[in-house]
Structure formats: C-alpha cells, structure tokens
Amino acid sequence: MDLRYPIGSFEHTGEVTPEQRKQWIQDIAELPERAREAVKGLSEEQLRLPYREGGWMLKQVIHHMADSHMNSMVRFKLALTEDNPTIRPYYEERWAELSDSRELDVEFSLQILDALHRRWVALLNTLTDADYAKTFYHPASKETTRLDYNLGVYAWHGRHHVAHITSLRSRLGI
Asked: CATH class for domain 24-172?
C-alpha cells in the first residue's frame, strides 16, 4: 500500500449522478465523527507521530482537514454567487507548519469540522442540478472545476486523511 494514498487517489469520470452526489454528501456529513473516532484515545505523544516517514503528524492532518475544508466551502460559495470565479490557492504545506497546526489541541479543529460540515451539508442538500454545474477556476492548476466534481474530491479528501490516521494506528497497534 502507498502510505501517501491509503485509499487510492480520487477518480471519477463521466457525469456525476444525483445518487453519487447523495453518497458524497453523506461522506461529508460523516467526516467529523470519523475524524474524532480516528484520534480517540490517542495521547499527545501519539498525535505527534507522522502518519508516514516524511509525512505530517497526526495532529497536523486533523488541522489540515479543517483548513482545507474551510477553503473548499468558501470556493463553493464563490462559485454559487459569481460566474466561474478565480479562487485563491493557498500553500497547504506551509499552513501545516504554522504553530497552530503543530501545537494546538486537535479538539479545536474537530469542533471546526463539526460546525463547518453541518453548514456545508445544509447548503449541499439545497443545491439544484444547475448549481452543481457551476464552476470555479484554479489559477495554479489552470483548471475549471464543477461543484459536483469538487464535492467528490472533498468527500474523498476526508476519507483519505482519516485513513492516514487509522492506517497508522493499525500498523502500530494503537
């Protein structure tokens, strides 16, 4: 198994069906509890373990999910209220090295994920097919992304990072 991608990389081709969107929304809804369960009972020392050699500490993974998913919700709102907006990229690896990501108790980001995902799911459940077809432009990748596809990316993203934590726990028996 590639420890960087314990569940593989995100792949989806073709149209995104309403059934697929429903599953991805469910994944988004379940992420906060899955993240909380993944770190349940871990000591501060264990939370400082990297999920793989050269990888982020488990606590950085949790803080990264909060940072990344906040950015994604903003991108959704921009796309819903503007015509193919150019979004603002950020250096996630630099954010992960900031003191809050390295030192702060993971509970704060778990609370962010809980509140953020409640709002995000409430919004996602009201979107129409036309809304999900809206797009944003990412200047770093030079790609235009539909919201329905981005929903899948973030459903995967949450599962991906939870698997970083749970696969390390499994490998170490913790």
From this structure: mainly alpha
